[in-house]
Amino acid sequence: MKILAIDTSCDESCAAIIDTQKWKLLADVVHSHINSMKNFGGVVPEIASREHLKGLPLAVHEALDSAKLKVDSIDHFVVTNRPGLIGSLLVGLSFTKSLAFSLGKPFSTLNHIEAHLFSPLMATLDGKEPPPFPWIACVVSGGHTEIFHVESIFKYRWLGGTLDDAAGEAFDKVGKLLKLPYPAGPKIDRWVREAASEEHRTRFSFPRAKTEVHTLSFSGLKTAVALEVKKRDLSNADEILALAASAQEAILDALVEKLRQTQKLVGVQTLVLTGGVACNSRLREKLPEAHFPSPKHCTDNAAMVALLAGYYAKHNQLAPESWNTTAYPSLSTLEGK
Ligand code: KG4
Ligand code: ZN
Fold first, then answer.
1. pLDDT below 70 — which residues of the chain?
2. CATH of the domain at 246
3. Is 300 in the pocket of ligand 1 (CB under 6 A)?
4. Structural domain boundaries enclosing 147
């Protein structure tokens, strides 16, 4: 069976195709709309929706071209309909429904976070061994920092997450205070890796919030950076570098400490991280034993959605859905599958 997967949950129009018999990814396309957001210091939901209207048909075309397939050879369409920006999700969902309806093919919806969660299984598409179950898994992105206990495919429990900002959001808000372009996470990662010393990373001791088990909080860090920025000279590049490096250290230390605590409490060794922040090279250094998908499959993509759909199909659980299916912005529908 050939499944075409679509994801428009944030500001990337993504399309991918999986062949479930061959267990191969035939296409994996991401059209990012980050450039349209640069002047705004973050994702503007209205602009993201409009960009998907232009970007999604192009991404789907490109996916079919690179798989050398005609659209009528797709057997099943899937789309993430939760959680995410509601306007963006609705563009993806409406597009997918229209395509499936016009071709007389079934369509199904999937959860974007569940797709991130199982993205380490992407290794199986290259004939490699994935990290062994059970996992403590953390989906750590711009919109989410969620910790799960994963026993096996589809069998998982949400343990907790951030009480306020997501870790990626903390990177981006610190970046905004330091007048770095959006998204600041990758920029801070690269700059610190290339230019920062141990002294830069420890010059400011920003807070690592002490929160209940399985929970995190990053809003205090943002306030602490804002207060420090007021006292400092932001025309001094060395000063900005030290602020960025020290803030990165605080975000990552809090995350690493929490995950280690969760590993101990739950009694599970295998640690898996996905989502945009899982691209971070310093985080990878701090957690050398953890499993990370390749950076391009940590950030938003439809390959992870196609893969998850492939697993549902393998388990005869890829049920066609009704035409009145809608989209949901929040994560609370995670168990709603
Ligand atoms: O998963 P993602 O592409 O989109 C969602 O939020 O769903 O994650 C984007 C987030 C942004 O906040 C970005 O700043 C952060 O991930 N990010 C990083 C890095 N690459 C992306 N944060 C720290 N270091 C990175 N290398
Ligand atoms: Zn995501």
1. 333-337
2. 3.30.420.40
3. yes
4. 135-290
Q: Specify whether 181 is located in the same domain as 69.
A: no
pLDDT in tens, 17-51: 999 999 999 999 999 998 888 778 889 999 999 99
Query: Does the beta carbon of 171 sit less than 6 angstroms from any atom of ligand 1?
Result: yes
Q: State how many domains the chain has.
A: 2
189 lines ligand 1 (CB under 6 A): yes
Is residue 83 within 6 Å of ligand 1 at its C-beta?
A: no
Q: Compute the distance from residue 117 Cα to the ligand 2 centre, in Å.
A: 10
Question: Rounded CA gap, 206 and 331, in Å?
Answer: 29
Report d(CA 269, CA 284) in Å as an integer.
16
> Looking at ligand 1, which atom is closest to the CA of residue 171?
14
Q: Are 28 and 301 in contact (CB under 8 A)?
A: yes
Q: Which atom of ligand 1 is nearest to the CA of 140?
A: 1
